[in-house]
Structures
1.
Amino acid sequence: QVQLVQSGAEVKKPGSSVKVSCKASGGTFNRYAVSWVRQAPGQGLEWMGGIIPMYGTTKYAERFQGRVSITADKSTSTAYMELNSLSSEDTAVYYCARDLARTISGTTYDWFDPWGQGTLVTVSS
Amino acid sequence: DIQMTQSPSSLSASVGDRVTITCRASQSISSYLNWYQQKPGKAPKVLIYAASSLQSGVPSRFSGSGSGTDFTLTISSLQPEDFATYYCQQSHRTPYTFGQGTKLEIK
């Protein structure tokens, strides 16, 4: 059973960058997409973007376009999310999640399962 | 972007109650709707995918219904471990979007 294990908490200065890793253990995620979702303190869930490791293709939410980069290393089954030009508004828990898919009656549906444990990124001067 | 709106935002209920949470999409998303449960300090966990399919290992007291723009998550008989926050999420098109969440509290 695949588990996603993320890197540890980070404290960053405004204007800097952060790179969070997400490693699949007990399997690989290469044939599925991996998404990154963040959650600001006390707030809801926000999809940032995703990657299909097998092809390296990425999609990003428009509000993060140009500021986020999602990459993957197939050899180690590890995905990365790098966010630049950090501000206090980027303080959040960042989750990776496998984008699992299944075909039901000829239609393919996808959902996030499993999720990593989350990585708290604190941006403070 | 497709906007997802949940109601209510919070709900107080007792063990054994039947509870329904609704989710409305700003445009038709067919059955591309998932439900997650999140407990404090933990990652979300999928309960229902494709609007009505129960994820393996999830108790049968959870059920989902709907298609198009209107969806519901029903818990038939609340258990103590069900008190959590619930989110709907559309997977019809990117950017994937979530509802704002429904916090289910003990009455």
2.
Amino acid sequence: QQPVQSPQAVILREGEDAVINCSSSKALYSVHWYRQKHGEAPVFLMILLKGGEQKGHEKISASFNEKKQQSSLYLTASQLSYSGTYFCGTASNSGYALNFGKGTSLLVTP
Amino acid sequence: NAGVTQTPKFQVLKTGQSMTLQCAQDMNHNSMYWYRQDPGMGLRLIYYSASEGTTDKGEVPNGYNVSRLNKREFSLRLESAAPSQTSVYFCASTYERGLGTDTQYFGPGTRLTVL
């Protein structure tokens, strides 16, 4: 089942902060975050695992609330290069399928 | 080390024509996946192969078939293309058998238009 992302779109000025949320109605084993620039493939940002382990870029931070089946991606001191569409992907305990949300479009302006 | 490669990059088909999208990875990954991406819909899983010799349906498998030719290659076939299959197709792979704890690496995509 597709996770729900919010907001759908956000516009920031360079240096501002943003939070992107991802929620699921199913119990989650892990949450994945990817960023996609226009016309390109999605690029890995972070994985958050049940139990607290995280794998990802040092400059990216995120949280995973297992009880609420929610994750948030924190973008601080945004740069122009942060612009793109952010997707969360969720994996449940059953099967191998990774379900992606519809994405959050982020635009950082000078 | 090329990562995940896809061919072709662009393709235009007429309704009813068939074609095969090719995907290969050189990272010794075990699992491979095919997604389609439509505007405002995110990425939807078509088929996946958890390991060589196995394939399973994803969320939107109708109208597609797949072949895991060997550990490196995973192809997606459209037997009779329909306009609803106009989309961008991404292939991806992971080392782990399954998606729970492993980074997914994506290919550059194939942009398919069915007229």
